[in-house]
């Protein structure tokens, strides 16, 4: 900030008995006094009141708000047509994008008229919601684990780690996230890029945003972020493909996560989630921003004394070590009790297994709100660590 000190207004009250002076003499005396004070420096006024004009703050020149970057793709329509024609919520969404982010109304009408409703996705979510209501079933962890702790994922992980050793080690150094956990995420999400999805993100997010009532608000937010992302990265929004839920690239970032946590890790000036190096850095950054603590435990197995466990488990449950002990659950090795601990339940085919989830376990669930998901990432990480 610059200040303009253009002048000082100094007024020194001279200690002269005024009644002895004529007005002209008084004026002359005052003038001489001020000149003397100015000449000898302001320090002479140390015991006198000094009035300094408020500094003028230099105002930056008025510049118009920069126009938003142009959108890619020659889409243009006067109204919505296609699968989402006549959706008032979608028209409202277009208006929001126009008012809030400066998009052209006709561009969005043209683009969204191309979006296709994915009925398969809606049916999948309806079934998934029913399964979630039923809770974890016996053997649920056994079958979930078998899908990911698989030779195919493990071999692909070792090969990927050899190909991308330098960025994995750089990410571990910069972010404090061990490379085996970055590999664990890449394994579960896309098997190292083998399955990055084939649904157009535009179709997925428009379908879920406007036809999936339970989480429509969330997906409308993701569609908003997706349109901002493609405009910023100079991409045609009708082109990117990803999962049926709109997740993109090797690490399956949702658009809002892209805007907040993706990084350009290979330094080419672009954040590209389909690039292995950018995906590695972005996952590590995501972990750090969600509380990963280097060198701290992820889980500690619990030994049960055989009594039925009455505590409610879950990655977001919070218990003290004393509460777990009272419930008949004891850590199999010493562990920190500084933080609130999660009680995790894995339902094997033959028995239930309880573990403590430490804050680093909770960090993994920020990637996907699921105990089984985070546990698969952790077990893969343990396996990769032994093999690398
Ligand atoms: Ca890049």
From TrEMBL:
One GO BP: peptidoglycan catabolic process
The Transglycosylase SLT domain, residue ranges: 89-381
Active site: 189
Pfam families reported in the protein's UniProt record: SLT_2
The organism's place on the tree of life at top rank: Bacteria
Signal peptide segment: 1-46
A GO molecular-function annotation: peptidoglycan lytic transglycosylase activity
Annotated keywords: Signal
Protein name per Swiss-Prot or TrEMBL: Lytic murein transglycosylase B
Organism for this UniProt entry: Desulfobulbus oligotrophicus
Gene of this entry: mltB
């Amino acid at each position: 900030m610059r200040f303009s000190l253009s002048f000082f207004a100094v007024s020194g009250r001279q200690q002269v008995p005024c009644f002895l002076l004529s007005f002209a003499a008084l004026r002359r005396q005052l003038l001489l006094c001020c000149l003397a004070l100015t000449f000898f420096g302001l320090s002479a006024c140390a015991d006198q009141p000094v009035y300094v004009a408020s500094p003028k703050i230099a105002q930056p020149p008025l510049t118009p708000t920069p126009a938003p970057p142009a959108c890619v793709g020659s889409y243009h329509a006067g109204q919505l047509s296609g699968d989402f024609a006549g959706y008032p919520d979608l028209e409202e969404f277009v208006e929001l994008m126009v008012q809030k982010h400066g998009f052209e109304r006709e561009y969005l009408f043209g683009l969204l008229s191309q979006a296709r409703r994915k009925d398969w996705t809606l049916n999948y979510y309806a079934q998934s919601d029913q399964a979630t209501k039923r809770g974890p079933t016996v053997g649920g962890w056994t079958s979930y684990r078998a899908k990911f702790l698989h030779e195919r994922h493990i071999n692909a992980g070792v090969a990927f780690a050899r190909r991308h050793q330098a960025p994995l080690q750089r990410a571990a150094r910069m972010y404090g996230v061990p490379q085996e956990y970055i590999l664990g995420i890449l394994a579960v999400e896309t098997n190292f890029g083998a399955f990055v999805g084939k649904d157009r993100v535009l179709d997925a997010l428009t379908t879920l945003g406007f036809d999936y009532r339970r989480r429509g608000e969330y997906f409308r937010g993701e569609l908003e972020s997706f349109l901002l992302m493609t405009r910023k990265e100079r991409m045609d929004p009708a082109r990117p493909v990803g999962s049926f839920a709109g997740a993109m690239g090797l690490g399956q970032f949702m658009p809002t996560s892209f805007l907040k946590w993706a990084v350009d890790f290979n330094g080419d000036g672009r954040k590209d989630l389909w690039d292995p190096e950018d995906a590695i850095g972005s996952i590590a950054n995501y972990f750090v921003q969600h509380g990963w603590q280097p060198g701290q435990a992820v889980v500690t197995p619990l030994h049960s004394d055989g009594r039925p466990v009455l505590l409610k488990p879950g990655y977001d449950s919070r218990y003290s070590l004393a509460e777990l002990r009272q419930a008949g659950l004891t850590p199999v090795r010493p562990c920190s009790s500084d933080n609130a601990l999660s009680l995790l339940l894995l339902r094997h085919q033959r028995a239930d297994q309880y573990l403590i989830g430490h804050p680093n376990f909770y960090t993994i669930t920020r990637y996907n709100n699921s105990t089984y998901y985070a546990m698969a990432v952790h077990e893969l990480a343990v396996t990769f660590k032994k093999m690398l």
